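Lab channel / #folding
Pinned by the channel admin:
"Please post every new chain as: sequence first, then the structure tokens as a reply. Keep commentary short and put observations after the output so the thread stays searchable."

First post following the new format, from NK:
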Amino acid sequence: MTTPLWPARLHHLRRDSREPERLARFYGELLGDRVEALPNGEWLVQGHGRRLIVGGGASGAVPYFALALRDAAQLADYAAALGRLGVAREPSPSPLFADGAFAVTDPDGRQVVFGLPVRASGIQSALAGRLQHFVCASTRVPEMLAFYRDTLGASESDRVLENEAIAAVFLRSDPEHHSFATFRAPESRPDHHCYETGSWNDIRDWGDRMASLRIPLWWGPGRHGPGNNLFFMIEDPDGHKVEFSAELELMSREAAFRTWPHEQRTLNLWGSAWMRS
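Reply from TO:
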């Protein structure tokens, strides 16, 4: 590791939509979470362990995602390490982090924000599902791997290979298998974000909630190869994928990455898969 990133955990992300209030209220109903308007025209959807900012913009866009560090000392050390590497730091776009937060821009032009959360109280949720990871599709997978692993300091957990070329890569910033991943695709775009639950019974309960809301499952249930987690996915009104997962694999900081073939079974050990390329 080149930087003191470990441990860092996904705290929130921003989704854009041409109808931000409509999308925010969809997520509020989907998750059973509180929805509130923010002063700058954004909307905040939040429940226990999960926060989503919705703003106006191109439907389906994710202009940034935000990682929470452990404390102020780690944040200062991390900022100094990036400075020694010559990484340009930008002002944080997030209203949910305290002073001292900053952002960097990845090869696809998306911002990654680092900071310490502003404490929120009184947040409850009917069903457990902590915001756990964000995944994008990219035309620049090797460059994205180099940036997130070699510059930002994430650990590579698994890579998917097709004829020795990297088709997907999964990276972790704490013991959970991945907080970020990227898949090779004809265009760079958001892929999905995920809510991590505690067990198979939680997946069942979330599936029953989807049924009560008349939201069909888009993919799954199944079990991923990389990460070994149980999952299903749905689509939101803008076509962005949302995953509900359980039992994501834990790995030590020093564990070496593994390789998988680019085939359907890698992405779903139980059956058919969503193949990005």
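NK: Residues 8-115 form a domain with the 2,3-Dihydroxybiphenyl 1,2-Dioxygenase; domain 1 fold (CATH 3.10.180.10).
TO: also worth noting, The mean pLDDT is 96.
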